[in-house]
Amino acid sequence: MNIGGIDSSRIEAMMAQLKAAAGKPAMPSAASALASGGVGGIGGIGVPESSSKVSFSDALKAQLDNVSKVQDQAEDMGKKFAAGDDSVSLSDTMIAMQKASITFQATVQVRNKLVSAYHDIMNMQV
């Protein structure tokens, strides 16, 4: 099934990777993989290496900040290219814009999964 240009199996694989990483005790190699964007390749989550637990809200805020930063960089590159700045090439600008688009789409899909899970939990019989 294809949801908005992103295959749902890739989203589920990314969620499985996040769950596996959350289930393991924090190790320096796992924290550095998360901080360098090793999960799903969509950018760094910014996990502090000193803490043994990462709260969901901190990870979510860090990822949202990362998405905002990537979009700001792409917009800045677009403005520089449109202004005729020779230090910015068309290919670099287009790549930055595609990265921004992909990170935003991935974030929206994660949000959709979270909302769906919330609705499933709220509709459960107690």
UniProtKB/TrEMBL annotation:
UniProt-listed InterPro entries: FliE
Localization terms from the record: Bacterial flagellum basal body
UniProt key word Chaperone: no
Keywords carried by this UniProt record: Bacterial flagellum, Cell projection, Cilium, Flagellum
Record has Acyltransferase as a keyword: no
Family annotation (HAMAP family): FliE
Annotated family: Belongs to the FliE family.
Protein name, UniProt field: Flagellar hook-basal body complex protein FliE
Organism field: Massilia norwichensis
Recorded name of the encoding gene: fliE
